[in-house]
Each structure stands twice: as structure tokens, then as C-alpha cells.
Specification:
Elements (H helix, E strand, L loop, with lengths): L13 H14 L4 H6 L3 H15 L5 H14 L5 H11 L4 H9 L6 H16 L5 H9 L4 H24 L17
Helix pairs in contact: 1-3, 3-9, 4-5, 4-6, 4-7, 4-9, 7-8, 7-9
Amino acid sequence: MTDFTLHDQQSAPQPSQKLLDTSIQAFGMIPGLHAVMAEAPGLLEGYQKLHQLALDSSFDKEELTVVWQTINVEHACHYCVPAHTGIAKSMNVDDAITEALRNETPLPTERLEALRNFTLSVVRGRGHVDENDVQAFLAAGFTRRQILEVVLVTAQKVMSNYTNHLADTPVDAPFKKFEWHKAN
């Protein structure tokens, strides 16, 4: 595995230094993912923008957590599952939702389960989704806008999950207590 530098504001390429300032403002630290991404300023900037666009989407905090964690778990991301567990806690998302996502067990509502199923269809099908899956998603009360917002969040998570796989990014200290490994 290639070793990647965990950049700080001094070691990062100049275009990434301001982006790392943004990370500190948002998280009170430079998350390890951002420290790795800083090697490629365009990747870090794109990720930060997509993260903000995900937060600004029409999904509420529980729904956004379902999309994020469904993708993280499907991609078996050792870094993002613990990180988004902590993020869900900071957003006051019900622990039952987080645990169901982490353990791939049923979610507390049929609506959230429909969201997870549709997200999995998008990820597993690489955007080729059966019309029945689309109709089930819409029947659960979601919108065509939200179909496309699942694509938006998928793009964000591909950037982070793949980076973490390539770099074997160490889990940040605040999230180590949420360590996770995909069940076989």
C-alpha cells in the first residue's frame, strides 16, 4: 500500500492550506480524511463542496445519515463508518438508526428502509436502477429530486470511501470508540 502523508497546514500544498482552515472551522480539527485529500487540492475542495451540498439537500438529518452510512457500510469503509457514527450523534440522530445501519439490520421505519434499499440499488447498480426500485422509493414518499440527491451523496462517499481504502486512513481519535468492521 502506498504511504500517504497526513498533511497539516504547513505540509499541505499551498492550494490545500486554505481548505484545511475550512476543515478546522467545521470540525475543530483536520480530519484524517482531509489530511490525506490535501495532497490533491481539487479532491479536497470537491469533497468539501459535495459535503456542504449534501447537508443542504432536501434530506433531513436521519435520511442523510441513512444515505451516508448505507454507502459507507456497502463500501466497507473502516474510516467513514466510525466518523459518521460520531457525526450522527452530533446531529442527534436516534442511535437505533445508526446501529441498524452499522449492523445491516432493519431500520425503525419502512420509509427509512426504503431509502436504504434505494441507495443500495443506486450503488450496486452503478446508477442502473430497476424501475420497480424507483417506484418503491417514490411510493415511500420520496421525490425525483431525492433520487438525484442520492446520486449527489454517492459521489461524495465514493470520494471519501475510495480515498480511505487507498490510504488506509487512520480513524481520528474522537471516533475510535465507534470502530467498525463489516460483518461477513
